[in-house]
Specification:
With 228 residues, this protein is mainly β. The chain contains two helices and 17 strands. The strands form four sheets. Strands 1, 2, 3, 4 and 11 form a five-stranded mixed beta sheet that branches. A four-stranded antiparallel beta sheet has the order 5-6-7-8, with no helix packed on it. A four-stranded antiparallel beta sheet has the order 9-10-12-13. The termini are far apart.
Length: 228
């Protein structure tokens, strides 16, 4: 049964959400089809997961596509990755507690494309900057949310978000890099997943690799040339 209906009832696209310890964290993107959605553009919101009460909100970097795995929620912290760093926000207040910025000479850039947290280790795909997708305010007076003409970035023939060459394992307490793994062509963040102490990564049509999450060592590797 429906527990509650809370604001915002209409919100921008794209969106991403994570939850922990009775809190729901929602990232709202940069596309508003109607004027009613515009107030929440590029906004991060924390809600009480039991009654929908808004706990806090803070702005996000404009033009960054939020529909990717760049948030991790814990009872104490929300890990929020963007084009500059991974921010450690106080889950209860949204206050910035700390920030992780790995050396550019290791990553080749400061843009965080994907993160995961497992057994106290932060895993991250970090690399070169991506072009900003301009805010889209369509001010439509028609019903619905059309999928055609969403934004400049979404309309491009080739998907260009979330690619990077360097995958890292980081101790979030000391910020020490535990291991690093590089790929060329770059890893597609949409392929990244992990379970059972293993990380799986790919560039579609090129390779598929499995790493030991503890050491970064390759456990197995397949390429399109060898395994069509």
């Amino acid at each position: 049964l429906t527990q509650f209906i809370a604001e915002p009832r209409y919100a921008p696209a794209p969106q991403a959400a994570v939850s922990s310890a009775g809190r729901l964290f929602m990232a709202f993107g940069h596309i508003a089809w109607h004027q009613r959605e515009e107030p929440m553009m590029n906004m991060l919101v924390a809600l009480n997961a039991f009654n929908g009460t808004m706990l806090w909100k803070r702005p996000l970097t404009p033009g960054v596509m939020v529909d990717r795995s760049t948030m991790v929620a814990t009872p104490e912290l929300l890990y929020l990755a963007d084009d500059k760093s991974c921010k450690l926000l106080d889950a209860a207040t949204g206050r910035l507690r700390d920030e992780i910025v790995p050396p550019v000479e290791v990553t080749g850039g400061t843009f965080w494309k994907w993160i995961a947290l497992e057994s106290g280790t932060l895993y991250a795909l970090v690399g070169e900057a991506e072009g900003s997708d301009p805010d889209a305010r369509w001010k439509s007076t028609r019903h619905g949310w059309p999928w055609t003409g969403i934004s400049k970035g979404y309309n491009e023939a080739e998907y260009r978000w979330g690619f990077a060459k360097t995958l890292l394992a980081i101790d979030p307490t000391t910020k020490k890099i535990l291991w690093q793994h590089r790929e060329d062509p770059p890893i597609d963040s949409r392929s990244l997943c992990m379970t059972g102490g293993r990380i799986y990564l790919a560039h579609f049509g090129k390779y598929l690799r499995c790493l030991d999450a503890r050491t970064g060592r390759t456990l197995w590797h397949r390429t399109a040339e060898k395994d069509p």
